[in-house]
Amino acid sequence: MKTYGVIMAGGGGTRFWPLSRKSKPKQFLNLSGKDTMVMDTANRLATFTAPEDVFIVTGKGFVESTVASTEKLLKADHILGEPAARNTAACIGYAAMEIV
Asked: How far is CA 39 from the centre of its chain?
């Protein structure tokens, strides 16, 4: 059985205010001093799963920014734009349906 890694990269820009904003939520912040949070997470996950098996689910408005932020590691078609923010279970279900 093949194993996939899925990163949920959602955010409304409120939790790390004033660093994060609606236009630049937490997943695009560099808090580690190395890279953005989403890229740090993708790098960690890629130690367990092949990078070609890693997917990111983000809001449809952040697909382009996520592609640009992760282009060193992930393919653009592995960035999934969630049609509507519906929390964790719906995000996981959406990712599973898109991957299958």
From this structure: 8
